[in-house]
Each structure stands twice: as C-alpha cells, then as structure tokens.
Specification:
The protein is of the alpha+beta class. The chain has 7 helices and 10 strands. α4 links the parallel β6 and β7.
Amino acid sequence: MVEPWLIDAAMAYNRQSFEQKDGYVGLILLPLEHLETVLNWSFQSLPDEILVGFDPNQNLAHNPDIHDAFIGNDHREQLHQGEGLVLGEPHLVNRGDSFSVHHIPEEWVDDIFAQERGGRGSRFTHWLHTHPNAVAIPSGADADAAQWTSGIDMILGIQFSPSGPLPWFDEVDGVRRPLQPEEAAQRADDVDSSGRRGWARVRKAREERQIIGRASTGHRIHGLELIAFHRTGVGINVVLVDQEGNPIGWNEIKEI
C-alpha cells in the first residue's frame, strides 16, 4: 500500500499538472507505486544521487479520455519513444555523486547498441535521477546526458537534513513542481503581498523545518520536487497514476 502522505501529495501534484497543462508539450504517466519504490531507493542512498531506468509498459496504454484531459495547446505528437504508454517498473542502475551517477555500469550496457547510445548505452527508454539537496532543475550535465535518451528524463529533488557540505539552494531559474502534501502544494500556488508566486512561501515553511518523513539513513526529509523534460529542453507533463493508469484524484480533477 502506498503511504497516505504520498497519495495526498500525488493528488495535489496532479491538480497542478492539470491546471498547468498548457505549459507542456508532452505527457508521461508514472504509476505512484513505482514512484514510491524510487523514493525508497533515494532515501536509502542519501546523500548520494541515484539513476533509475524505465521502459514503457507495453500492456498499458494511456486512456484516451485521460490523455486528452492532460495535454495542452502546445502538445506535440511523436516527440519521443514510449509516447502513449504508461511507465513500466523502475530499475536502479547506478548510485554516486553528480559527476559519476550518469555513467552506466557495464552490467547494464546493451553491447549491440552501446556505441550509438553514447554515455547511456543501455536498453532503457526513460530515465530518472535524483538531486539530493538541490532543486529539480536540469544542470548542464543533465542536459548533456539527456541527449542520449530516446524517451524523457525526470529529476527528483530531495531536501533533507542534516545536509552536510551541500545545503539546500533555492535560487535557481526554471519551473518548479513541488511533490508535497496538500498544505504545502497550496502554499506553492499562493501569491504573496509583493506579487511574487510560489516558492517564497515554501521557503518560509522550509525555514521552519517542516518534516514530511525520515529516511532509513536517519536523514529528515523536508521537501520533494519532480519534473520531466525532453532532450530538446522542453517540459513534459507528469501525471501520477494508479495500477490501471488512472490519475490519483481523478474524480476530483474532472470537476475542475
């Protein structure tokens, strides 16, 4: 069973995915149980980053009604491999620092196509890697690695303490997508008195050291972010779904 706090966070996240759909050119459906698996791997690996590979679930296509509900005005067809299919099971491929995590260990390399696939010479279509104590915005190294991705890349940002030598840094340009329970997600949508949106309120909450969980390593988890992008640099809308491919909180979203 998926933890209740993560279900609540997924409902808030999907509502933002629906309301902000016109800001994306592609769509990916990620089962919440797979995300929970990735979160567990991530928390067990702190403070290291992890790299996770996905292939599409060939037996689970997007429900046409759901697909149409979450695509925006600028949606593009045939943008990447695996379009129209829900993500399959995650595979933990590597663990390390930001310089080494994108390297594919030899046991994961598909020798037939390794040279053509460059630094990510393995069989997976989609990728996710974590940003421990860093926002979920692609770095230069992330953008370079994505050039070898046939599907899409995802980034999971994790704020935790004790932070060690790399404290959380908020001042980064880009679209931020909190994966937080309802209260934090609402704060991210607020406009403060100066007219600035979003993360000023979340930063204030983080200064108060809100704790949403504790990792097996002993680290306290204060916040999560999740984004997806294509190698061309455009954003991909992520929707968190159940085992049948239905968005978490779908009944409520349909009423918006």
